[in-house]
Amino acid sequence: MDSPSPNSDPLTIGGRQFNSRLFTGTGKYPSMASMQQSIERSGCDMVTVAVRRVQTVAAGHEGLMEAIDWQRIWMLPNTAGCTNAEEAVRVARLGRELAKLAGQEDNTFVKLEVIPDARHLLPDPIGTLNAAEQLVKEGFTVLPYINADPLLAKRLEEVGCATVMPLGSPIGSGQGLNNAANIGLIIENAGVPVVVDAGIGVPSEAAQALEMGADAVLVNSAIALAGDPAAMAEAMGQAVMAGRTAHLSGRLPRRDQASASSPTTGLVQSPQ
Prior knowledge:
- The chain is an alpha/beta fold and 272 residues long.
- Helix content is 38%, strand content 14%.
- It is built from ten helices and ten strands.
- The strands form four sheets. The protein has a three-stranded parallel β-sheet with strand order 3-10-9. Strands 6-7-8 form a three-stranded parallel β-sheet. A two-stranded antiparallel ribbon has the order 1-2.
- Helix 1 runs parallel beside helix 10, helix 4 (85-101) crosses helix 5 and helix 8 (203-212) packs parallel to helix 10.
- The longest helix is centred in the C-terminal third of the chain and has 21 residues, at 229-249.
């Protein structure tokens, strides 16, 4: 089997095709130039933007809208900072207007985050479901950030979400795929793309997510806080392609016992 190129193996979300299965963010970078270089070298074509931070011109977000080529990069507005469903719905509406300002008139995407606890940054399942139902009714393409809960993931799919985005481990922790078993169940039962979001710290973990069958990963902190963000972004892009190719190739079945890789026939016999 020929290895798939990004262009021959696109990911479709909400009727839109993406060549890269790596999504990146815009926060925590040491400089705007570093962010621009990282986005370029990652090869990604969707980037998430915190609507509230752009609107309030929070530190590190000055000039963000002008720094990214929105004709090439698809904007994924997110509702970071929202603590309940009502707040998330309001910010999602603002995000749609933000995308229009970037020239993306038909962009209805929103990365839905409802996070009431600032210490652990774990998403509220009930608030997320309630907000998702309302946003779907309003015509949004909803990508909800959730705990790795297979039942919640299925319920969000049933109400019309375009993806589910289970966390690998807490945001910014770099702990990797601590919830791999549950993520596997979500992937097994999902009828929409599964995007692993949060906790990925190194490229091998991004590759692991794709090897498991995840459709994409979203990585921000591991890139932005690396010693060389642009180089790490490139490594993440390569890892995602490797993981996807490995998944499509089909892994060696696990065995309880060893199995010799060299033939056991035609061995040279010891002289008698």
